[in-house]
Write a structure and sequence with these properties.
With about 400 residues, the chain is α/β, with parallel strands linked by helices. The chain has one domain (about 5-385): Ribonuclease Z/Hydroxyacylglutathione hydrolase-like (Metallo-beta-lactamase, Chain A), CATH 3.60.15. It is about 20% helix and about 25% strand. The protein has helices spanning about 50-55, 80-85, 115-120, 130-145, 205-210, 245-255, 270-275, 285, 295-300, 325-335, 380-385; strands at about 5, 15-20, 25-30, 30, 55-60, 65-70, 80, 85, 105-115, 155-160, 175, 180, 185, 190, 195-200, 220-225, 235-240, 265-270, 305-310, 340-345, 350, 355, 360-365, 365-370, 375-380. Strands 1, 2, 3, 5, 6, 8, 9, 10, 11, 23, 24 and 25 form a 12-stranded mixed β-sheet that branches. Strands 12-15-16-17-18-19-20 form a 7-stranded mixed β-sheet. The longest helix has 18 residues, at about 130-145. The chain is globular and about 55 Å long.
Length: about 400
């Protein structure tokens, strides 16, 4: 069965897709494992590393692995803990085989990386150590590919978008261009999913490139995942990292007349439910006078019947914080009201005082909360009941 797990990592992203194929192929989007999450004496922060490991397969050598790790963009809250928990380096040199399972670093069979997101980073934005390590590993794998050595587990790489000045012209077989739909991962075609890359957008106009720095070069990708019931429609899962209002305006201008590009059954609210994905105005400065961008809202409003929007963030309160922003939450709830959908937040699931991973199962072309025993129930039914102390 296809499942999507959102881990409670405060205002950060860590999302695991497991496909319905026999191998239970896995795609991990971003990671945010804080030091406090690794501290056995700190019970205030969820041990999401253990939560992740229990959901991963082991290979023939007993190594935990993900088939794909995709970094949406190199902010610390999207890659923290990468070097500590994942093996980065030549797979032939993997050093942890004699360690207990809990101490073995996770093998990344294939990396999905964007050259543009690193090239466009602001000069004022110093990359954290984990982002530097990821970029170094992605470049190493590209070098391996160029030498004809990159087609094996632990060495593969796909590039999400072209680089500037023809720097990826010799890499056409591992470059996914924006607007392209593909159905292969870890070196092989997989019939249980497709994905359409929408961004980052390649552009050489100076004014536009300036707007596309940092968050606005996040990978935006729309997955189509098989339902647990054979023959049922696929679930569309739209993931956009920290993409802000400018990107969503551009995507709406590009895909306004495309019925499928931005349509979703499940949306991960961009930038941890930030108002900046919906508006040019500051929420803390303008409050209720802040104006919604019609184009950005339209792009993010392509919800199908019964759609779910998940905010990967801390608890959303009625205050001036951004992210997460109460006004953004209300805008998403307004979008969902028209399709009978539901808004959920990782920082409030199942309660804000005791969080656990949100496991969603793809069923009948949509998503349902997966119960601990393996069954599922409708998201609306589980999430609709008010909880003591939760924000209204």
């Amino acid at each position: 069965m296809s499942t999507i797990t959102f881990f409670p990592v405060d205002c950060g992203d860590m999302t695991l897709i497991r496909l319905s194929d026999q191998a239970a192929s896995s795609i991990l989007i971003d990671v945010n494992i804080r030091a406090s999450a690794d501290d056995p004496d700190d019970s205030s922060v969820r041990d999401v590393a253990s939560d992740l490991r229990t959901r991963l397969q082991r290979d023939a050598l007993g190594r935990p692995y993900v088939d794909v790790f995709m970094l949406s963009h190199p902010d610390e809250d999207h890659c923290l803990g990468l070097s500590r928990h994942f093996y980065l380096g030549p797979i032939a040199d993997y050093p942890d085989d004699k360690k207990p399972d809990k101490d073995k670093r996770i093998v990344i069979r294939e990396i999905w990386s964007s050259p543009l997101v690193f090239r466009r980073r602001s000069k004022d934005h110093v990359l954290c150590d984990d982002a530097v390590a990821f970029n170094r590993e992605a470049k190493r794998r590209v070098k391996q590919y160029r030498q004809g050595l990159g087609n094996k587990d632990g060495e593969r790489v796909l590039l999400m978008g072209e680089d500037v000045d023809g720097k990826t012209d010799d890499l056409t077989s591992i470059v996914i261009k924006p607007g392209t739909t593909f159905g292969h991962l870890n070196g092989a075609y997989n019939s249980c999913f497709e994905a359409t890359l929408l961004a980052p957008i390649l552009c050489d106009e100076p004014d536009i490139v300036e707007e596309l720095k940092k968050n606005n070069s996040s990978i935006v990708i729309n997955f189509a995942l098989d339902s647990v019931e054979p023959g049922r429609p696929r679930c569309k899962f739209l993931s956009g990292g920290d993409a802000e209002v400018y990107v969503w305006e551009l995507l709406w201008a590009e895909y306004e007349h495309d019925d499928e590009a931005l349509r979703y059954d499940l949306l991960q609210a961009p930038h941890h439910c930030s108002w900046h994905s919906l508006s040019w105005d500051s929420w803390s400065d303008k409050g209720q006078k802040a104006l919604v961008s019609e184009g950005a809202r339209a792009a993010l409003a392509q919800a199908k019947s019964g759609a779910v929007i998940v905010a990967s963030s801390k608890r959303i309160l009625d205050d001036k914080n951004d992210p997460p922003c109460i006004r953004a939450k209300r805008e998403y709830e307004s979008i969902l009201a028209g399709v009978g959908g539901k808004f959920m937040c990782t920082g409030e699931y199942p309660q804000h005082w005791e969080q656990s991973p949100l496991d969603l199962q793809v069923s009948y072309g949509s998503v349902r909360v997966k119960k601990a025993g393996g069954g599922s129930s409708a998201v609306a039914a589980i999430a609709a009941a008010p909880r003591a102390g939760s924000p209204q």
